[in-house]
Sequence to fold (173 residues):
Amino acid sequence: MNNLNFYVLGTLLVALTLPAMQVSAKEFRAIKPINTAAVIPEGAQAPDEFKPVATELVDQALEKLMESWGSPQMQDYLSKNFFDKDRLTDVIDTLVPRDAIVRILSIQGIQTVQQWEEPAPGAPDLRIRVSRVSVVVRTQLEFTRPDGVLETKPGTTEYLLKFKERSEQENKS
Fold:
């Protein structure tokens, strides 16, 4: 009888602590807003009107990126701030077959997430609109295995692209 009471007490304690553990887990996943003010460069300003980047421009940029995938030209498309970009190209060179290509299966979402205007270099009267665009893309890596069989590896990736376009606004500063 004593063992039964101990078992019931232990089960009751576990049952009482589970809701507390679930609450703390939910708090761990809380969404915190990103401070975008720190990302806008000095001398830039918010545009008078937010204009999403045209879908055609995003499609063209993705096509160029996928065509350059695995080649030395891919470095040209990566930001100077891209973390460890030399390591990325080294991994592609060593782990991915030479004949591999990346095919775009679908574009699942395009969203202009940030935008600002800055003076055009060498032309202070002109403004350049800079946009950061998030693109979610379903892709497929395709290559031929040594035994002659076509291998496909699907995947979904989010790309953060940066576009610079001439603004219709004159420099206000």
